[in-house]
Amino acid sequence: MNNENKLKFSDDALALAQRMIKRYPEGKQKSALIPLLHVAQAEFGGWLSSDAMDYVASLLDITSIEVYEVASFYSMFNLKPVGKCVIEVCHTGPCWLLGSDDIVKYIEKKLSIKAGQTTADGMFTLKTVECLASCGTAPMMQIGETYHENLTLSKVDDIIHECKATVVDHVTHWSKKEIK
Ligand code: FES
């Protein structure tokens, strides 16, 4: 664990993190890891640097590797900088059968990036992710907390247009939200 870590939560985010930790019995504070990673991701620019993960480890009194293992497993955590709108297209079986590859290719062409990349203006990041549990409305993608379902190329156009018009403020989102 890095004790010289310069990153720190804002007062509000720290208070939220402490409330989350207190929900669990003494010695089981690691159970608050995923909620704290959401707060950290929001606080520190939409992604988790190693310093950010070290800081979370220090709050939970666990090792950094325990944090890295979890953060690198779940696709909702970004381990490198991302754009303001993170587009996550599901490419697992049912979505794939109903055209998720075409959706990904279409977005790649439209935004001039490949999956895993961010546009030069820092507006969009495109990711492909595994099943988001909305197989009945495939093909689908997630942006922030919103599911966009039964996608067509025309719907994708509308969604991207709307994203440009209403920039999602990921940075403050989770720190303002009480996670149930
Ligand atoms: S396969 Fe895409 S949501 Fe399940």
What does this structure look like?
Helix content is 43%, strand content 10%. By secondary structure, it is of the alpha+beta class. It has two domains: 11-73, Arc Repressor Mutant, subunit A (Orthogonal Bundle), CATH 1.10.10; 85-165, Glutaredoxin, CATH 3.40.30. The protein is elongated and about 50 Å long. Bound molecules: FE2/S2 (inorganic) cluster. The site of FE2/S2 (inorganic) cluster (FES) has 12 residues, from helix 5. Residues 90, 92-95, 131-135, 138, 140 line the site of FE2/S2 (inorganic) cluster.
Summarize the model shown.
By secondary structure, this protein is an alpha+beta fold. 43% of the residues lie in helices and 10% in strands.
Distance between the termini: 28 Å
Per CATH, the architecture of the largest domain is: 3-Layer(aba) Sandwich
β-strand percent reads: 5-15%
CATH superfamily of the largest domain: Glutaredoxin
Show the helix and strand layout:
Elements lengths: L10 H12 L10 H11 L6 H11 L3 H10 L11 E6 L2 H5 L2 H12 L12 E6 L11 E3 L2 E3 L4 H13 L4 H4 L7
Helix pairs in contact: 1-2, 2-3, 3-4
Bound molecules: FE2/S2 (inorganic) cluster (FES).
FE2/S2 (inorganic) cluster binds next to helix 5.
